[in-house]
Amino acid sequence: MIFKGDYFFLSNFYPAKVSYQGRVFPSSEHAYVSMKFSEEFRDQFVDPMMSAGQAKRIGRTSKLRFGWAQRKNKIMFHVVEAKFRQNPDLANMLIRVQGEIVEHNTHRDRYWGVFEGDGKNHLGIILMQIRQRLIQELVQ
Question: What is the pLDDT of residue 62?
Fold first, then answer.
């Protein structure tokens, strides 16, 4: 699925406030990208006038903090989980998504998603893990 239209809420670009590590970000993309940087540079990403696309571009062009490659999946999980736990309407929408979640995209991302049938789909996997946790909590 492409995270647009009815599935846009699955996108990290979806405008949903996320409180993470003492800051409130306009989207999970802002929160995730902020974590690529040392503490003193993270405040710039709480600006509600900065689009998720702008945040992503900054994250692509700046020097990353040491050890980012080893941390990024865990941080993405925690940021996306915060998004859904802090926004119950979105959590309910995620629970209602049936089957495998695959982030098909047109921007050539084969790490977080799938482009032209090829990719690791880490974001889709994270979303399915969070969905499973939310469902388990409902039945307990």
Answer: 81
